[in-house]
Design a protein that fits this description.
The complex is a heterodimer of chains A (about 80) and B (about 450). With about 80 residues, chain A is α+β, with helices and mostly antiparallel strands. Chain A is about 65% helix and about 15% strand. Chain A has a domain of about 55 residues. In chain A, strands 1-2 form a two-stranded antiparallel ribbon. Chain B is mainly alpha-helical and about 450 residues long. Chain B has 18 helices and four strands. Classes of the chains: A alpha+beta (about 80), B mainly alpha (about 450). β3 of chain A pairs parallel with β4 of chain B.
């Protein structure tokens, strides 16, 4: 990371719009993919699709979060005083 | 309570604790934006509403303990409720008392939550008969109006008047109600979740979309990484009774009891600021005053969240205050999979004793897990979170959950409905309108618009 690289302050945190876009796209794509896969999974395990859709969608978003940890850089420089 | 339910309460409280310790320590995590969508997801996934309430109470315990840790150690709030603690934490840090306020805050959180739980449950039990009367309807201008509506209206007006920009807040009440009802009439269904999520992420979306505007973007631009100074922590006793002085314990207990009741209609942030400032100004010693204010604010944070959730939930059945209409709103929302609100499900399927025991058990588990973890490892966790979790990953996760839930609510139109509601909410928030005003207007909108259109003017 360059010392004078430009970021934007959002909710008290410094973010890169490009990285935020990538992280949001990855989490959303996985959430919706898992959401749409839910009826098939529900059929396989023999339960109603409604609840499973939301649960799997949330799981997809969480997988997206885990992947995003590798895609985005931390913009905090921690100094111990 | 059967053994399986007890086991599930223990499991969910523990999981909730670990998740919200992490979320609490992360800077910039708004309470409504992080607590409501997850509770809503669990409810929509078919989990028993009482177990989701248990999850929610444990999350309050962990989140409100953890969000003040980055405040004490680095002067950075972990959540909106921790913002009022920043000035006192900086005074303490200047005088080498960062670890002192941190441990006092954690201990005061325990006191706040336990006192509020006892007060809220006892008061709710006494007031339960009044609930029937509040749910009855009267005819006003030819419109059937539930009596609780006047309580919500009074609450939203009080909140608007105490907003940073009171005139804009007051004007926004009928205008926002018309926006919501207009969109509902276009959808042809009483959509709720999309609008609720829209308000929740309003400030984030407004800032984010402002950054797409070339001129506005300049005001958000910063150079290089953000420097965070983390204070060192000495050895801390695990016994909470050794941490608080008699004065701090007495103030924490008293104000937790009082504010847990007031949070039925008043803003938790407002109460935290008000009481903390009163205590600090009342002390002759600046440092002692700041430490006392910081400590009691931590107790009030837990107390207002507990009281603001449980009293409307058990007694009134409607979200009468900013807490119930904000982070706890999923419990007052009619869900298709239940055919009623989770609140109604809990009250019709469980007796008072089971509800009270479940919530005390959740609190006990939450503190047994979170308290030693935070006291012993708070600095290490803060360091790991600050060094390893980029803000983009977290914001991306919450935006993804909001998009998915909006789609679930009203398909593609739901996503755009969320977008427009979030933009309007974010703009009003920027103009100084408390988001609580918008949450409560959302609840009052159907009756408010019916009354507005029935006015003989």
């Amino acid at each position: 990371m360059e010392p004078d690289e430009e970021f934007y302050e959002l909710y008290g945190e410094y973010v890169s719009l490009k990285e935020l876009g990538v992280c949001t796209a990855v989490s959303t794509a996985l959430a919706m993919l898992f959401f749409y896969m839910a009826p098939r999974v529900a059929e396989l395990i023999g339960v109603a699709a409604g609840g499973i859709s939301i649960t799997l969608g949330a799981v997809g978003a969480t997988v997206g979060f885990a992947i995003s940890l590798l895609l985005a850089r931390v913009k905090r420089e921690v100094k111990e005083v | 309570m059967d053994p399986l339910t007890v086991a599930l309460i223990v499991l969910l409280s523990t999981l909730s604790c670990f998740l919200y310790i992490f979320i609490g320590i992360l800077p910039g995590t708004d309470e409504t934006a992080t607590m409501a969508p997850i509770a809503l997801t669990l409810l929509l996934a078919g989990l028993d509403p009482l177990l989701v309430l248990v999850w929610f109470v444990a999350s309050i315990a962990a989140f409100k303990m953890a969000d003040s840790i980055p405040v004490a150690l680095a002067g950075i709030p972990g959540g909106v409720m921790a913002v009022p603690q920043v000035p006192d934490a900086l005074v303490a840090k200047e005088h080498g008392l960062a670890d002192t306020v941190m441990r006092k805050g954690i201990a005061a959180s325990v006191v706040g939550q336990v006192v509020a739980l006892a007060v809220s449950l006892a008061l709710s039990y006494q007031l339960m008969p009044a609930g029937e009367w509040l749910r009855a309807t009267d005819t006003v201008l030819g419109v059937k109006v539930a009596r609780w509506f006047w309580l919500v209206l009074a609450g939203v007006v009080v909140l608007a008047v105490t907003s940073r920009s009171r005139w804009v807040a007051l004007l926004s009440i009928p205008s926002f109600a018309l926006l919501v009802q207009g969109l509902r009439s276009i959808y042809g269904r009483p959509i709720y979740i999309s609008f609720f999520l829209g308000i929740t992420i309003g400030p984030l979306m407004f800032d984010l979309l402002s950054m797409l505007h070339r001129e506005l973007r300049k005001s958000y631009a910063r150079r290089g990484p953000k420097e965070v100074k983390l204070a060192r922590v000495g050895r801390i006793s695990l016994n909470p009774l050794r941490i608080l002085t008699k004065e701090e314990l007495a103030h924490s207990t008293l104000w937790s009891a009082v504010t847990s009741i007031l949070a039925t209609v008043m803003s938790p942030v407002g109460l935290t600021i008000l009481v903390g400032d009163l205590l600090r100004e009342g002390s002759r010693d600046r440092v002692k005053g700041s430490v006392l204010a910081y400590t009691v604010r931590d107790a009030i944070k837990n107390a207002t969240y507990i009281g603001g959730t449980l009293i409307p939930l058990i007694v009134i059945g409607q979200p009468t205050g900013p807490m119930a209409a904000g982070p706890a709103m999923p419990f007052f929302t009619k869900l298709e999979n239940l055919g009623m609100t989770p609140r109604d499900y809990i009250m019709s399927n469980y007796d008072y004793t089971t509800i009270a025991l479940s919530l005390f058990l959740a609190t006990a588990i939450a503190f047994l897990v979170a308290y030693p973890v935070l006291v012993k490892y708070s600095r290490r966790i803060t360091l790991a979170v600050f060094r390893r979790v980029p803000a983009e990953a977290l914001y991306g996760l919450f935006i993804a959950i909001v998009i998915m839930l909006s789609y679930y609510d009203a398909k593609v139109a739901g996503i755009f409905g969320t977008l427009i509601v979030s933009l309007v909410s974010g703009a009003l928030w920027r103009l100084g309108v408390s988001l609580g005003v918008l949450f409560m207007t959302l609840v009052a909108a159907p009756t408010l618009v019916a009354l507005l259109t029935a006015l003989p003017l």
